[in-house]
Structures are given as structure tokens and as C-alpha cells.
User: Which sequence fits this backbone?
């Protein structure tokens, strides 16, 4: 009788929580960015991204998904003829922890009466760590400590992930999907470019070489910028993007007879 009582208690208390299934999975795809060194997406600047996540499905429509991701972004003025003389470039390795809420447009669960495929949308918040770098003499140099615009910005930032995707249950337990996500940031320094040129006659050799790189492409080897000239647009914050395939394992809950 004691075992039966415990089983009944389990079915009435713990089982309702377990009934909404958990998932663990991984994502792999590409990442890119929009900012002062790319006013639109440049396909050849797409880099590798990936992540791992677990998900709790509240019901057939709503789920929450914490995710740990790595995304790499890059850009170069050489991709745009009108920016060629500015001649700036960068790469940035981004480490992100996000938590997003998913909404399925069709009821999606391991129940036979629900769909095996659904389109979904997502929205959440993320904390990310980034570190812009530039290539100089075959060596990657971290840009933030140089203060190329005489401004030290924070390397830990917050972003707002948003996007949409499609998922399909191959089996009651195996789910595959494809997702496109955008991150709205509150920084203009993913690319280390935002405002105006600082005093180019101060700082060390590395600072002078990277704060203004127009000398590398000018006809006479002279700098084309002066202190106070526009280096970027501070009114437009940077974005980064990810498109990725995913696969996850859905834990089928224990079924109670009650």
C-alpha cells in the first residue's frame, strides 16, 4: 500500500512537471554581422558558429531554451568600393549565453494528435563576451586596449536575440530544425569602429598603425584622415546574426495510468 500511495503522489505532483518534455541538443551553422564595416551582409564574411542548449517545453506551443554559443564575425572595407580608402578590417570571437522563449505556430509535442512539423518564432535576452581584433604583420592584435577612438568600451554586453525557424520530429525523441536569429546589441564597437579619428600622433606604433590604415592603400603612402574626421556612425548600433541547423533529443515522460 505504501508503494501504491507513493506512486499516486508521484503521478499527481511530479508527473505534471515531467509531462512537458525536456530536450538537450546542439546547433551548427554560420554567423555574420552588420555594422560600420558592413552596411549589408557580405556572404564571404560568413564564419562558423555553434552551440549547445537544453529546452523545457511548457506545452505544445511554448518553450524556454537556454543556450551557450560561440559565434565568429568579421568584416573589411575592401568588400565595398566606397570604403576602400578607409581600409579598416576586423574579426571578433563572441561567446554568448542566451535564454529565449519559443512559440510554435502549430501544436508540437510527442503526442500523436499534434504535428510533427512546426514553424516557430523566438525572442529573449543574451549576455555575451566579445573581443575585436585586427591583423597586422601576420599577427592578430586586440583592438580594445589600444583605444583607437580614444574610448574604452566594455567587452561584456547584452543583446536581444530574435528570429524564427522550423522544426521536425523524425521520431518521438529526435528533433531536427533550421533557425535564423538576429541579435540586437547596445554597442557600436563589435568592429571597433564608431565615432571619429583620435589624435593619430599619440600612442605607440601599433596604435598608429591600426587607428588609421588608409596609408596602406593611398597612392603616396600618406594618411588620408585627420583628427576629428568621421571614422564611423555612432547612431547605428551593431548587429550580429546566426543561421544554424539543430538536432535535439526529447526525453519522453513516464506515463501514469491516472
Assistant:
Amino acid at each position: 500500500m505504501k508503494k501504491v500511495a507513493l506512486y499516486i503522489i508521484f503521478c499527481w505532483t511530479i508527473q505534471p512537471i515531467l509531462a512537458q518534455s525536456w530536450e538537450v541538443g546542439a546547433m551548427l551553422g554560420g554567423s555574420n554581422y552588420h555594422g560600420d564595416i558592413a552596411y549589408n551582409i557580405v556572404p564571404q564574411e560568413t564564419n562558423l558558429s555553434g552551440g549547445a542548449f537544453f529546452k523545457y517545453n511548457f506545452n505544445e506551443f511554448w518553450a524556454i531554451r537556454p543556450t551557450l554559443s560561440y559565434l565568429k564575425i568579421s568584416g573589411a572595407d575592401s568588400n565595398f568600393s566606397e570604403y576602400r580608402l578607409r581600409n579598416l578590417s576586423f574579426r571578433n570571437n563572441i561567446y554568448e549565453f542566451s535564454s529565449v522563449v519559443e512559440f510554435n505556430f502549430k501544436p508540437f509535442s510527442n503526442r500523436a494528435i499534434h504535428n510533427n512539423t512546426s514553424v516557430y518564432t523566438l525572442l529573449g535576452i543574451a549576455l555575451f563576451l566579445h573581443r575585436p581584433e585586427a591583423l597586422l604583420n601576420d599577427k592578430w592584435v586586440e583592438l580594445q586596449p589600444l583605444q583607437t577612438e580614444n574610448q574604452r568600451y566594455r567587452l561584456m554586453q547584452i543583446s536581444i536575440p530574435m528570429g524564427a525557424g522550423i522544426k521536425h520530429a523524425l521520431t518521438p525523441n529526435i528533433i531536427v530544425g533550421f533557425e535564423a536569429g538576429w541579435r540586437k546589441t547596445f554597442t557600436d564597437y563589435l568592429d571597433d569602429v564608431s565615432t571619429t579619428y583620435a589624435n593619430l600622433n599619440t600612442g605607440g606604433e601599433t596604435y598608429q598603425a591600426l587607428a588609421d590604415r588608409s596609408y596602406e592603400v593611398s597612392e603616396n603612402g600618406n594618411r588620408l584622415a585627420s583628427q576629428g574626421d568621421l571614422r564611423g556612425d555612432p547612431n547605428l548600433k551593431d548587429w550580429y546574426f546566426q543561421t544554424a541547423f539543430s538536432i535535439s533529443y526529447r526525453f519522453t515522460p513516464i506515463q501514469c495510468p491516472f
Q: What stands out?
A: The chain is about 10% helix and 45% strand.
